[in-house]
């Protein structure tokens, strides 16, 4: 019985060590290094799923189906944050809370749009224009109407804030 207990304890400790070291690599996609502009774009490619990262530096082209308040925000040449979410899932709730917190901090200088992914009437063709296909998704557009950075899936508040700061520092057209 004593040998069985030692074997079980050893196996349990080994499993703990494996799980402990499993996430210790330097593969954190939100970790920043060096210059913020390049790092943010590299981070977007690493963090993003789907095709959202392909929009970075692309000018947002609106259509007749684009919501008018979004068009007016682009015309004002201020940065715009667009987020898509679903109710319920943990990642969506966390990202939404982060965006709402940043809205209270940057709301006077940045326009924020939140869209429930199931409310296609309200957001019109924005998912097509911004190449968003999943939730949560966050897209930051600078004053030149270019996508500054975009994430599809969970993203931390600090990364979103860094994207907002960079969009604010980009001169308007």
CATH superfamily: Glutaredoxin
In terms of per-residue confidence, which ranges show pLDDT below 50 for 5 or more consecutive residues? 16-51
Strand order of the largest sheet: 2-1-3-4
The first-level CATH class is given as Alpha Beta
Assign the structural class, choosing from mainly alpha, mainly beta, alpha/beta, alpha+beta, or little secondary structure. alpha+beta
What would you say this structure looks like, in words?
- With about 170 residues, the protein is α+β, with helices and mostly antiparallel strands.
- It has a single domain (about 35-170), classed as Glutaredoxin (3-Layer(aba) Sandwich), CATH 3.40.30.
- Helices cover about 45% and strands about 15% of the residues.
- The protein is built from 7 helices and 4 strands, in the order αααβαβααββα.
- Helix 4 (about 90-105) packs parallel to helix 7 (about 155-170).
- The protein is globular, with a radius of gyration of 20 Å.
- The N and C termini lie far apart (about 75 Å).
Strands, helices and their partners?
Elements: H1 2-22, H2 36-47, H3 68-75, E1 80-85, H4 90-106, E2 111-116, H5 120-123, H6 126-130, E3 137-141, E4 147-152, H7 157-169
Parallel strand pairs: 1-2
Antiparallel strand pairs: 1-3, 3-4
Helix pairs in contact: 4-7
């Amino acid at each position: 019985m004593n040998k069985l207990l030692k074997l079980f304890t050893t196996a349990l400790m080994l499993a703990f060590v494996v799980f402990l070291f499993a996430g210790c690599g330097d593969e954190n996609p939100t970790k920043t290094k060096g210059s913020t502009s390049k790092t943010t774009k590299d981070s977007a490619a690493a963090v993003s799923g789907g095709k959202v990262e392909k929009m970075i530096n692309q000018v947002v082209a609106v259509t007749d189906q684009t919501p008018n308040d979004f068009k007016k925000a682009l015309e004002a040449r201020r940065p715009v944050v667009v987020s898509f979410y679903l109710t319920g899932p943990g990642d969506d709730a966390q990202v939404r809370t982060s965006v709402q917190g940043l809205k209270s901090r940057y709301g006077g200088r940045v326009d924020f749009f939140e869209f429930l992914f199931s409310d296609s009437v309200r957001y019109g063709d924005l998912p097509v224009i911004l190449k968003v296909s999943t939730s949560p998704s966050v897209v930051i557009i600078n004053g030149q109407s270019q996508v500054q950075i975009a994430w599809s899936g969970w993203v931390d508040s600090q990364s979103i804030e860094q994207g907002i700061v960079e969009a604010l520092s980009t001169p308007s057209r």
